[in-house]
Amino acid sequence: MFVLRRLPALLALLMLGALSLRLGLPFLVAVPLTLAALVLLFVPKAAIQASLALLLGAGTLAWAGT
């Protein structure tokens, strides 16, 4: 149940990682940043969750710009 509640954000972060590779961010930078964001997704602190929400919002704007 814990993972199912976070599944939409998990998929969005994976898509954001793919978008960063498509936009030209080097592989050795994009993959660790994406994996770090995925790990932080499962940390239940409010500040981390808020920062991930901002990251996903910025990813939405980047996706809309392509």
The percentage helix is: over 70%
Distance N terminus to C terminus?
Answer: 34 Å
Number of strands: 0
| Overall tally of structural domains | 1
Radius of gyration, taken over Cα atoms and rounded to an integer in Å = 12 Å
Order of helices and strands: HHH
Query: Class by helix and strand content?
Result: mainly alpha
Description of the molecule:
It is globular, with a radius of gyration of 12 Å. The chain is an all-alpha fold. The chain has 3 helices and no strands. The protein has one domain. 82% of the residues lie in helices and 0% in strands.
Write the layout of secondary structure elements.
Elements: H1 2-22, H2 27-40, H3 46-64
Name the descriptors:
66 residues; globular; mainly alpha
Provide a brief overview of the structure.
This protein is mostly helical.
